[in-house]
Specification:
This protein is α/β, with parallel strands linked by helices. It has three domains: 146 residues, 3-Layer(aba) Sandwich (Rossmann fold); 35 residues, no CATH class; 197 residues, Nucleotidyltransferase, domain 5 (2-Layer Sandwich). 34% of the residues lie in helices and 19% in strands. The protein is built from 14 helices and twelve strands. It has a six-stranded mixed β-sheet, covered by helices on one side. Strand 3 and strand 4 form a beta hairpin. The relative contact order is 0.11.
Length: 398
């Protein structure tokens, strides 16, 4: 508003979250709060259903988009003004640097003075394994400004709020360090808490045992109304001959908003690379609930290309809890070993949480939280790779 009235230019804002529908009760409500607090709601067009806010005197807009439809982020046009500001709310929901770079690269082109291009990312402190810490906090960059605020700088809190934080300092010091002081880490509800406390015991630089075969889990991305696929994940593990050790040796992500044939090509390359490196047979376990056609296409591709020692199967049907139990046992017994080739899985183990919402508690059984804070897809793919062999792995354990 100020830039239009003082300088005669029209900056516009794109607001992004991982899922489009999450804007309604978060970013949109926050902006409406600010508009009302400034007493200028009569100057804004605020439609009930549409996720757009328009400043009436100039036609400037605030747009809302979700990363669940990346195609919509590449074709944004502005009728009035210049789209030069980007706000990513809960930026930790972007699981990798590539997603951020796609957004960042979409803001290219000259803007008139005194406008400038700026991306603002906001988040609560999260695992120190997130790409955000390494990208923005751990290295000096003259184009990057970072700041951490705590409850001590929050002018909207009252005395009761301050007493809550001070009590937390005494009763739950770990949570206070994260929620209260903004230090990196996950505060509570960790599924793999023992691993988070002592992660180094599960990390190895090289595979130093004889291996019997490789198991690969494939988790397809969620679908869209147009029938496209979202991010698809592969996770490869290798078992020692005595079943006592499981090495996590390779992973790959594919932003699958293309033809399914492209996904088949990507999977085949992943498999061929593994065979070239390890010279072992491979069993591919594919998510099958809604992907029978793709699984059949993969089977046919393996046959047509005459790839020896590769078998395609539907993933073994089991509960998420049984998959988590097996993973907890393998991590706890120091039998599940993570190599440098699986940074995504490493991060997911460190951030996986139990769902503590009232709705989840009503179900009466533990539920894994799936709200974007953790890469559930890589966990699913990994679990598909190991769960079929549960009885052998348990029999070889303590």
């Amino acid at each position: 508003m100020k830039f239009y009235h003082v300088y005669g230019v029209k900056p516009c804002l794109l607001t992004v979250r991982k899922y489009l529908n999450s804007h309604r009760n978060s970013t949109r409500e926050a902006l409406l709060w600010a508009i009302n607090r400034l007493g200028v709601n009569h100057l804004w067009h605020i439609p009930r259903g549409e996720l757009t806010l328009t400043y009436l005197p100039s036609g400037q807009v605030i747009l809302f988009k979700g990363m669940d439809d990346p195609d919509s982020l590449t074709s944004i046009t502005i009728a009035n003004g210049h789209l030069c500001w980007l706000w990513i709310e809960e930026i930790y929901e972007l699981h990798d640097k590539e997603d951020f770079e796609k957004l960042d690269m979409s803001f290219r082109g000259e803007v008139p003075a005194p406008l400038f291009k700026q991306c603002t990312g906001i988040m609560n402190p999260w695992s120190d394994l997130t790409w955000i810490k390494g990208q923005f906090f751990d290295k000096k960059d003259n184009d990057v400004f970072t700041a951490t605020t705590t409850y001590l700088q929050n002018e909207f809190l009252d005395d009761a709020d301050y007493r809550l934080y001070e009590k937390m300092k005494l009763t739950n010091p770990r949570r206070y360090q994260i929620v209260g002081l903004g230090n990196w880490g996950v505060s509570e509800g960790l599924i793999y808490a023992d691993h988070v406390e002592n992660p180094e015991k599960n990390y190895v630089e090289i595979v130093d045992h004889e291996l019997q075969f490789i198991s690969v889990g494939l988790d397809y991305g969620s679908g869209t109304p147009e029938g496209k696929l979202g991010k698809t994940v592969l996770s490869a593990v290798a078992f020692t001959e005595d079943w006592k050790k499981v090495y996590c040796i390779k992973e790959s992500y594919y932003d699958g908003f293309f033809l399914p044939e492209k996904i088949v090509e990507w999977v085949l390359k992943f498999i061929l690379d593994l065979k070239s490196e390890y010279k072992l047979d491979i069993i591919l376990h594919c998510e099958w609930a809604s992907s029978a056609a793709l699984n059949n296409a993969l089977t046919l591709a393996v046959i047509e290309k005459d790839i020896e020692g590769v078998e395609v199967r539907n993933a073994y049907k089991s509960t998420i809890l049984s998959r988590i139990d097996l993973t907890q046992i393998l991590l706890g017994e120091n039998r599940l070993l993570l190599t440098p080739a699986v940074p995504g899985l490493k991060a997911a183990f460190s951030t996986a949480l139990w769902d503590s919402t009232p709705k989840a508690k009503l179900k009466g059984v533990p539920i894994r939280l799936d709200n974007g804070t953790t890469d559930i897809c890589i966990l699913d793919a990994f679990e598909y790779a190991i769960i079929r062999y549960e009885k052998y792995l348990l029999a070889a354990g303590k």
